[in-house]
Design goal:
The structure holds two protein chains of two kinds.
Chain A (H helix, E strand, L loop, with lengths): L3 E12 L2 E12 L3 E5 L6 H8 L9 E6 L2 E2 L5 H7 L1 E4 L11 H5 L14 H14 L15 H13 L5 E5 L7 H16 L3 E5 L3 H7 L2 E6 L2 E7 L7 H9 L18 E11 L7 E11 L3 E6 L5 H8 L6 E9 L2 E3 L4 H6 L2 E4 L3 H5 L6 H6 L7 E2 L2 E2 L1 H14 L16 H13 L5 E5 L7 H16 L3 E6 L2 H7 L2 E6 L2 E7 L5 H8 L1 H15 L1
Parallel strand pairs in A: 3-8, 3-9, 6-7, 7-8, 13-20, 13-21, 16-19, 19-20
Antiparallel strand pairs in A: 1-2, 1-4, 4-5, 9-10, 11-12, 11-14, 14-15, 17-18, 21-22
Chain B lengths: L3 E2 L1 H7 L1 H20 L7 H26 L7 H18 L4 H26 L3 H20 L9 H8 L1 E2 L10 H27 L4 E2 L1 H23 L4 E2 H19 L1 H11 L1 H6 L4 H27 L10 H11 L11 H20 L4 H28 L1
Parallel strand pairs in B: 1-3
Antiparallel strand pairs in B: 2-4
Helix pairs in contact in B: 2-15, 3-9, 3-10, 3-11, 3-13, 3-14, 3-15, 4-5, 4-6, 4-13, 5-13, 7-13, 8-9, 10-11, 11-13, 14-15, 14-16
Classes of the chains: A alpha/beta, B mainly alpha.
C-alpha cells in the first residue's frame, strides 16, 4: 500500500469571467513520477500555481493535503519551506550571475556577520551539480551554459532547498533530444533518492518513458488518472482524453462558401532564432491559402506557429530568414511591415494587449493606426473622417463601447479583439493571419469572432487561423496544416481531420526522434 | 444618453488638464500676493514673456520627445552652441544679422540629425545620446567662443529677443495695435472653437453644454484681453511672442492632426504595436530628434538676441525647465501621453515660479530646490494617477 504524498481535492479557481479550474482532483503517490497532460489552456499550469502558493490559500476553493497535513500555502516561500518546489517553463535564472550565485539566490549561504560564505556556497554548488550530473565550474556565469545545462541548474537549485515534491512545467520544451533524455533519466535517478516529481508535458513518448501515472486535464476538469503500467494506457488513449470533447454548435455556419484563386503562397520558409544563431525555429515550411478559404495552423506550444507568421509579416521575428512569399502568384518582398501591409497581408497578434493595441489611446485611433495614409492628405489626418470610419467599424463589427473615443484599454477582451480586426480590415488586406484570435475571451464573444471570420472569408479574403484549440480549428477551417518543432508535418482536409489525427501529426517529429533517443540511451 | 456632457463629467474626465490649470492659477495667485501684485504689473508680465520664451520653445520640442518615449538632456548646450556660432559670424566676422539666425538654426538641425542618427538608427537610448551631447556641445561652445563672451549683436538681431511692435495705430498711454492683434486672435479662436463644436455635433460626438462652452470662451477671451491690456500698457507686442505663438499653433497641429504626430503617440504608447502596424519607427524617432534640434536652434537665436551676445555658459539648466514644463503639463513618463498646450502651461508655471522667486529676492539655492521638488511632485502625480487608473 503506497501512501499519497499529495492530495488535491475539489480545487476550483475562478478568474474574473473565467473558471480556470473546476472541481479538480489530483492524487500523487510518494516516490512516483506523475505526469499531467492536457491541451494548452486546459488548466495545468493554473493547478500547479495553486499547489505552489503562487495563488495563495483563500483565492481558490478546495483542499490540499501534503505529507498528511492540510497545506495552506500563502506564498511560494511557504510551499518551498514545506518541500514543494516548482520549476517554471521559462527559466528563472539570472544569466549574468554565476552558477553558485543562481543556485543560492534568495537562499544564500551565510557565514560570519551574516556575510555570504562563498567558499561554502561554491563547494555546495559543486556537490549539487554532481547530483544532477553536471561538471561545471560554480563560478561560471549561467548565461554561458546551454539551455539544457541551465535546466539542470534549475533542478540543482531545487535540490538545494531540500525538495520533497518537484514540479516541472514542460521541462524539455526548449531542449534538444539528448538533453531531454538526460533530464528524464535524472528524474528517474531522483526518484530512487525518494523525490516525487510532477511533470507537465505535451510530449507523450516522454511521458510514456518516465511517468508512473498520468492525470489528464481538460477544460479545467480532471478527466482521468492512468496507471502507465497498464497495457491500455497508450499514447492514443491519452490523446483521446486530451481532446475528447464534443463539437457542439459553437461554430457558426459558413455563408457563401466558395473557394477561389490562390492568394498567398509561402515556399521553403526557414527562420532562425534571433539570439541563438544555430537554432532553427521554422524549418523549410511551405503552405498556401486561397480566396474564401480558412486555413488552420495547428501546433503545440513552441512549435513555431507565431514565429512563422511574424517572420512572414515584415520579418518581425527571427534572423537568417530564407524562402519566398507569393501573392496571387507573384513573388513579393515582405521584409518590412509596411511592405507586407502594402501587399495586402495582415497579422493580428496573439497578445493583443502587449503587441496589438495602444491601450492608452482611444478606439478610433487604434482602428486607424495601420492605415493612416487612407485618412490623410499631404500628411494631415482628417480627424472627422476618422470618426466616421471608426463608427462604421463599431457598427459592422459590433464593438461594444460607449464611444469610439473610449480608451482601448477599457474594453473587454472580445471587443478589443474586434478593434484589432477592424484595424486590419481597414488596411484592405486580403490575407488575414489571425494568431489565437479567441484567446482569453468568453464563449459568446468567440462565436462573434468566428462569425466575423466567416464574413471575411465570404468576402473573398483568405484567412490563416493559428490556434491552440483543436475544436476551434476543426469547427472553422477548410484545411489544417500541422506544425511540429518548426516543420510542417502534414496538411489535412477538414473531411479527414480528427483531433486524434491532428494530435498525432502535431507530436510526430518528437515521436520518432525521442524513441530513437530512448534506444540510444538504453544501449 | 444625451449628446451633452455635464460639467462634472468633463471635469473628472480631464482631471489632469483641469488639475494643471488649477495649479497654475493657484501659483499665480500665491506669487501675486507674496509680491504685492508686482508679479502682474505690465512691466513684469512683459519681462516674463521676454525672459522665458526660449524655455517655452524648448518645451514644445521636449513634449514631443517625451511623448515618443525619449528624453533630451542636451537642449541647453545645443542652444548655447547655436548662439555661439551665430555670434561668431555676426559679431566677430561682421556678417549680416540674418546669416547668424540661419546659421544658428542650421546648427540646431545638424545637431538634431546627429542625435537622431544615434537614437533611431544605432539604437542608443536618447538618455545616453543626449547626456553625451550635453557635454559634447557644451565643449564645442567653449571651443567656438574660445571661452570668451561675444557681444554686441546688431540692433536688428537684438530686436528678435527684446523688440516690440507698437505705435502703429497710436493710443494714449496704451498701444492700440497690440490690443487689435490680440482681439483678432481671440476672434479667430472663438470662430474656430465654434466650428469645431459644430463639426463634432454633426459627427454626434460628446460636447460640453452650450452655456458652459460660452462661459469657457468668454473666460479665455477676457483673460487674453486682460493680458493684452497689460502688454499694451507697457511696451507693446513683443516680437518673441509672435514667434512663440506661431510655433505653438504649428506644433499643436503637428501633434494632433498630422500622420507624423500620430506616429509619435503610437510609438510612445506601444512601441511593438506601432511597429506591427507598419509605423516606420526609426524615421519617426529620427524626426523627433531632428525637430528638437531645430527648436533648440530657435531657442539659441532667441536667447542670444535677448542676451545681446553669446556666453560660454549660456543655456545652463534649460533642459531642466523644458523637461519640467512637459511633465507638469501632463506628459507621461512612459511616453504616449502629452500635449503642446499642456507643456506651454507647464512652462508658464515654471516661469511664474522662477520670476516670482526672483522678485522676492530668494537665493538661487532656494530656487533650485523648489524647482527640483516641483518636477518630482509633478511626475509623482502622474504615476499616482496611473496607478489609480490601473486599480480601477
Amino acid at each position: 500500500m503506497t501512501t499519497n504524498i499529495l492530495e488535491m481535492r475539489g480545487i476550483t479557481k475562478t478568474f474574473p469571467g473565467v473558471k480556470a479550474l473546476s472541481d479538480v482532483d489530483l492524487e500523487v503517490r510518494a516516490g512516483e513520477i506523475h505526469a499531467i497532460c492536457g491541451e494548452n489552456g486546459a488548466g495545468k499550469s493554473t493547478l500547479m500555481k495553486v499547489l505552489s502558493g503562487v495563488y495563495p490559500h483563500g483565492t481558490y476553493e478546495g483542499t490540499i493535503v501534503f505529507n498528511g497535513d492540510e497545506a495552506k500555502f500563502g506564498s511560494i516561500n511557504d510551499s518551498e519551506a514545506a518541500g514543494v518546489v516548482i520549476i517554471h517553463q521559462e527559466l528563472a535564472l539570472v544569466p549574468y550571475l554565476t552558477v553558485a550565485e543562481n543556485i543560492f539566490l534568495g537562499n544564500e549561504r551565510r557565514g560570519l556577520f551574516g556575510l555570504i560564505d562563498w567558499n561554502r556556497a561554491n563547494h555546495e554548488a559543486t556537490e549539487l551539480m554532481h547530483r544532477v550530473g553536471l561538471d561545471e565550474n560554480p563560478t561560471t556565469p549561467v548565461g554561458q551554459l546551454g539551455v539544457g545545462k541551465q535546466q539542470l541548474i534549475e533542478i540543482a537549485k531545487a535540490l538545494s532547498k531540500d525538495v520533497k515534491l518537484l514540479i516541472l512545467d514542460e521541462p524539455t520544451a526548449a531542449l534538444n533530444d539528448g538533453d531531454s533524455i538526460h533530464l528524464l533519466d535524472l528524474l528517474k535517478g531522483l526518484q530512487t533518492e525518494g523525490i516525487t516529481s510532477i511533470m507537465i508535458s505535451h510530449k507523450l513518448n516522454e511521458i510514456e518513458y518516465v511517468a508512473d501515472r498520468t492525470t489528464i486535464i481538460r477544460d479545467g476538469r480532471t478527466i482521468e488518472s492512468l496507471d502507465m503500467a497498464d497495457a491500455t494506457s497508450t499514447q492514443d488513449r491519452i490523446i483521446r482524453g486530451m481532446v475528447g470533447r464534443d463539437l457542439e454548435h459553437r461554430y457558426p455556419e459558413r455563408i457563401d462558401h466558395q473557394i477561389g484563386e490562390e492568394l498567398l503562397r509561402v515556399e521553403n520558409w526557414t527562420v532562425h532564432h534571433p539570439t541563438q544563431p544555430g537554432r532553427v525555429v521554422v524549418d523549410n515550411a511551405s503552405f498556401n491559402v486561397r480566396a474564401g478559404e480558412v486555413v488552420g495552423i495547428a501546433g503545440l506550444m513552441g512549435a513555431g506557429r507565431t514565429e512563422l507568421a511574424m517572420s512572414i509579416f515584415g520579418h518581425s521575428y527571427g534572423r537568417g530568414i530564407a524562402g519566398q512569399v507569393f501573392k496571387r502568384g507573384e513573388l513579393v518582398n515582405t521584409r518590412t511591415v509596411s511592405q507586407a501591409i502594402d501587399h495586402g497581408i495582415a497579422y493580428a497578434t496573439e497578445d493583443r494587449k502587449r503587441y496589438g493595441l495602444n491601450l492608452i489611446e482611444d478606439v478610433k485611433r487604434n482602428i486607424s493606426a495601420a492605415a493612416l495614409g487612407k485618412l490623410s492628405t499631404r500628411g494631415f489626418v482628417n480627424g472627422h473622417q476618422e470618426i466616421v470610419v471608426a463608427e462604421e467599424y463599431r457598427a459592422s463589427m459590433n464593438i461594444k463601447t460607449p464611444s469610439v473615443l473610449q480608451k482601448a484599454g477599457n474594453l473587454s477582451g472580445g471587443n478589443q479583439q474586434k478593434v484589432v480586426l477592424s484595424k486590419w480590415l481597414y488596411t484592405d488586406a486580403d490575407v488575414m493571419i489571425l494568431d489565437e484570435p479567441t484567446r482569453g475571451i468568453d464563449v459568446g464573444a468567440k462565436f462573434e469572432i468566428y462569425t466575423l471570420m466567416n464574413k471575411m472569408a465570404a468576402e473573398g479574403k483568405g484567412i490563416v487561423l493559428i490556434s491552440s484549440e483543436l475544436p476551434e480549428l476543426l469547427g472553422t477551417c477548410d484545411r489544417i496544416y500541422t506544425l511540429a518543432f518548426g516543420r510542417i508535418t502534414g496538411v489535412l482536409d477538414i473531411a479527414d481531420a480528427t483531433p486524434e489525427a491532428l494530435m498525432t501529426l502535431m507530436t510526430q517529429e518528437r515521436r520518432t526522434s525521442a524513441s530513437a533517443g530512448r534506444e540510444g540511451s538504453a544501449a | 444618453m444625451s449628446a451633452i456632457a455635464n460639467l462634472r463629467e468633463i471635469f473628472t474626465r480631464n482631471l489632469r488638464q483641469s488639475g494643471i490649470l488649477i495649479a497654475f492659477v493657484a501659483i499665480v495667485l500665491l506669487f501675486t500676493v507674496l509680491t504685492d501684485g508686482k508679479l502682474l504689473s505690465p512691466e513684469n508680465l512683459t519681462n516674463m514673456v521676454l525672459q522665458y520664451s526660449y524655455i517655452l520653445v524648448l518645451a514644445i520640442g521636449m513634449v514631443i520627445v517625451i511623448i515618443g518615449g525619449h528624453i533630451d538632456l542636451s537642449v541647453g548646450s545645443v542652444a548655447a552652441l547655436a548662439g555661439a556660432v551665430s555670434a561668431t559670424l555676426v559679431v566677430k566676422h561682421g556678417m549680416p544679422w540674418w546669416t547668424g539666425v540661419l546659421a544658428a538654426i542650421g546648427v540646431g538641425i545638424l545637431v538634431g540629425a546627429w542625435q537622431g542618427f544615434w537614437v533611431a538608427f544605432v539604437g542608443i537610448p536618447a538618455f545616453i545620446t543626449t547626456l553625451a551631447g550635453m557635454l559634447l556641445f557644451r565643449g564645442m561652445t567653449w571651443q567656438v567662443l574660445n571661452n570668451f563672451s561675444l557681444s554686441p549683436m546688431p540692433p536688428q538681431y537684438q530686436k528678435i529677443g527684446n523688440g516690440f511692435i507698437n505705435g502703429l495705430l497710436g493710443g494714449n498711454g496704451y498701444d492700440v495695435f497690440t490690443l487689435v492683434v490680440f482681439a483678432v486672435g481671440v476672434a479667430g479662436y472663438v470662430v474656430s472653437q465654434f466650428r469645431a463644436r459644430r463639426k463634432a455635433l454633426a459627427y454626434k460626438q460628446l460636447v460640453p453644454a452650450l452655456p458652459l462652452f460660452i462661459v469657457k470662451l468668454v473666460a479665455v477671451g477676457l483673460l487674453v484681453m486682460w493680458f493684452a491690456w497689460k502688454l499694451a500698457n507697457d511696451r507693446g507686442l513683443p516680437i518673441v511672442l509672435i514667434v512663440l505663438a506661431v510655433l505653438v499653433l504649428i506644433y499643436s497641429v503637428v501633434t494632433s492632426r498630422t500622420v507624423f504626430g500620430r506616429h509619435v503617440y503610437a510609438i510612445g504608447g506601444n512601441l511593438t504595436a506601432a511597429t506591427l502596424s507598419g509605423v516606420k519607427v526609426k524615421w519617426v524617432n529620427f524626426g523627433i530628434m531632428l525637430n528638437m534640434g531645430f527648436l533648440a536652434g530657435v531657442a539659441g537665436v532667441l536667447f542670444s538676441a535677448r542676451m545681446n551676445g553669446a556666453q560660454p555658459g549660456a543655456g545652463n539648466l534649460f533642459e531642466l525647465d523644458a523637461i519640467a514644463a512637459a511633465f507638469i503639463g501632463g506628459a507621461a513618463v512612459t511616453g504616449g501621453v502629452g500635449r503642446v498646450s499642456g507643456a506651454i502651461i507647464g512652462g508658464l508655471i515654471m516661469a511664474t515660479m522662477s520670476n516670482g522667486m526672483l522678485i522676492l529676492g530668494l537665493d538661487q539655492s532656494v530656487q533650485y530646490m523648489v524647482k527640483g521638488l516641483v518636477l518630482l511632485l509633478a511626475v509623482a502625480f502622474d504615476v499616482y494617477n496611473k496607478r489609480r487608473a490601473g486599480a480601477r
